[in-house]
Design a protein that fits this description.
two-stranded antiparallel sheet, alpha+beta, 86 residues
Length: 86
């Protein structure tokens, strides 16, 4: 079963993908690590953020790991790279 999810890209992740957002079909049941792996398949350039990125699902931060996620149509996933101030 898949869910059509809006993926939002911020700052460096938007630069690397060339997108601010896109709708992507993703497995409804996944882990945060698998979700990141699927995004890397779509946009291999995101690998530059591998150890620095944070994901947010439905506006809640999730750690990259084995955390189980259940996605539904219309959910938002944000790719949040490290931000620098200035």
């Amino acid at each position: 079963m898949t869910a059509r999810v809006t993926v939002l890209y911020f700052a460096k992740s938007a630069e690397l993908t060339g997108h601010r957002s896109e709708v992507v079909p993703l497995p409804a049941a996944t882990s945060s690590c698998q979700l990141w792996a699927l995004l890397l398949e779509l946009h291999p350039s995101l690998a530059a953020l591998q150890d620095q990125v944070v994901l947010a699902v439905r506006q809640q931060y999730v750690a990259l790991g084995d955390q189980a996620l259940l996605l539904a149509d219309g959910d938002e996933v944000a790719v949040v790279p490290p931000l620098s101030g200035g």
